[in-house]
Amino acid sequence: MKLQKIAGLILTAGVFVACNTQKPAASTATAKQDVKAFDNLVEQFADIKVLRYQIPGWENLTLKEQKLVYYLTQAGTSGRDIMWDQNYRNNLKIRKALENIYQNYAGDKESKDWANFEIYLKRVWFSNGIHHHYSNDKIKPEFNQAYFADLMKTTNTVLEAAVVDVLFNDVDDKKVNLDESKGLLAGSAINFYDKGITLKEAEDFYAKKTNADPKKPLSYGLNSKLVRNANGELEEKVWKSNGMYGAAIDKIIFWLEKAKGVAENQKQADALGLLIKYYQTGDLKTWDEYNIAWLDATEGNIDYINSFIEVYNDPLGYRGSYEGVVQIKDFDMSKKMAVVSESAQWFEDNSPLMPEHKKKNVVGVSYKTVIVAGESGDSSPSTPIGVNLPNADWIRAEHGSKSVSLGNIIDAYSNAGGKGKLQEFANDAEEIALAEKYAEIGDKLHTALHEVVGHASGQINEGVGTPKETLKSYASTLEEGRADLVGLYYLYNPKIQELGLVDDWKKTGMESYDSYIRNGLMTQLVRLDLGANIEEAHMRNRQWVSAWAFEKGKKDNVIEKLTRNGKTYFNITDYVKLHAIFGDLLREVQRIKSEGDYEAGKALVENYGVKVDQKLHAEVLARNKQFASAPYSGFVNPVLVPKMDAKGNIISIAVEQPKSFEEQMLNYSKDFSFLPLEN
Fold it and tell me: How far apart are CA 632 and CA 208, in angstroms?
């Protein structure tokens, strides 16, 4: 599971942002000076802000550790085009055409049309395809089809007419559609299912799958595309070596083999060996074995995420999007936050869940703050700020999970944050003062509690299927909301002060509640076009949590909706009662998950998390116009450059920053395009 970040709303939106001090201690003054002088902003266009991040402490790693990081980042980037093809079947063709035009056009580059073409290309790069990375809507060019035809002609660019038409018409206009009335599969352009396969056919296909051990269900569908064969029958095209995406997967395996050769310890090497075997065979039992081995490999300084992981992009919740993250342990912050994972059982025992839904033994929850060294696929350019894996509930119950907070990414967001939005949207001076003093620590703790305690808490009743089977298209948003609620419930609790995590639990909790409600009911709407419903899982969960709490507290006026000078504000009048409301909702959401209550889950999301108050939305957009900062942010990756000796051995690895966003994207296309244009 991923924790998303809303860039540009720092201190105003309750989006779990923390500012992390960085090591090494031996060169603290130099590190701080470098961070201060470092320019995080690369460029801004449309609704996007592209940032850069550093890898502090790189020079303190041994050469063997640096090699491990280098090999893992090469492996991750080698699978980049898988994500492009997963997002839409024509993305690789379109990218090749757009890049050919960009690199070869010799006409008027001062025109408005050319400027709009450049922006369109950058938006496509940022989203790994022609659909917006967050809203899932197709990105429409702000130049006409005739101009595009002229660009193609003058640059000898080839792209089928039907695909060109798609850029400008309304075909395949939604990457992931969650509106059941439009058809979850028929209305989604994601390249996970052959066109024409119906929802019933897909559900029937997986209903026939059986598990040798029902208590340890395999993640059916995670690493394949569901297609119709020549006989008209459904079958899976597995993503593996010698299978679908095999050319890119073989490159991933090549670099993983090199990484295995410089592993820090045997457990890490064993886990890498199982990941390689999984890529070679596509066997889902091997995937489970790998996840267990990866969980057990906790001793090294280097860790990684690589494969088909998150299922948010599948409207049915089966198929995993490709991603890679390579990370270096931040020892100082990890030590400070380890107390959260060490107290996981206390949090579970004292939660408001029904007794039968509590875990009797919360096992193996590890939490680290890490320094990101490279990202790819579903994590790049747009990245989460926190991750908790693996996703299989039975593995989490028996073997635990790993939670990480991406410290240097959070720092880069914070350093590049916009100013003034807190003053615009906060209700009063007291709320502003609380945010200025407690927002950073509150957001940091919410990240930890969400990832470590939230996703690890609760259990599914025996005999109840997995959430993707029972809760279907609502599983992701319900899980993210459940984890948010765990964090909210414990942020307003003296236990966090008793553990030494805060100086004032009450004020920290008050600020966290202020910012969460403000964001869930109002400020996150800056990410939507006027008239749109909420589609993205995390945005939905923030709204249904906040809207449900607002409605349930109406009798006692727990949350006031105020209007002053034509502007709307939300004011919490009773934090104790709001804490109880969050506890009630947490209990109900866990019941929904534990019992597989689809109808209750659907009602919660549809009634509170989807529809937007259009009058309030228009107001928020108007108030936000004064701020230049874009609502979405993402990153270019530092480039690791090995230096070789005469025999071809790596003797050192330097960290360099790309000169521009387009330079990195074009270099990726040149050096990491291993797939055919049709897969």
Answer: 41
